[in-house]
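Q: what does this look like with FE2/S2 (inorganic) cluster bound?
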Amino acid sequence: MIKFFLNGKEVSTEVAGDMPLLWLLRDSFKLTGTKFGCGIGQCGACTVHIDGEAMRSCLMPVSTLAGRAVTTIEGLGTEEHLHPVQQAWVEQEVSQCGYCQSGQIMAASALLANKPNPGEQEIDQAMSAIICKCGSYPRIRKAIELAVK
Ligand code: FES
């Protein structure tokens, strides 16, 4: 049995330790905000926070999670109190197809938690690791700059 914290609550699982966290989140915990894009660590759609760092859940075996804190898009803010990055995303109307957006928001919120006032280049560098097929990067940068304010 593996115990860890998921969106602030202690949870346990008995799935095989080599199961990727992404599968556990979506299939066992029904947290489907975290998306499957490529499954091989290339696209970033599956990004969550593990101990506050942006990580790709498709590459994270469940066996590595004991005692750690996982946050998904469902745990970032609430409908009443959006996280500042989520609020900025709404105000800037960032989403187009929307598929990569939870990964984008998780990456952006981790960036700001670690670097509260990033420059344009730092934003672009951090966010280029999450692929957006709609090319919403200019709106993503604007939203992050808004969230900083
Ligand atoms: Fe994990 Fe693409 S689904 S990086």
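The mean pLDDT is 96. The chain has two domains: 2-76, 84-148.
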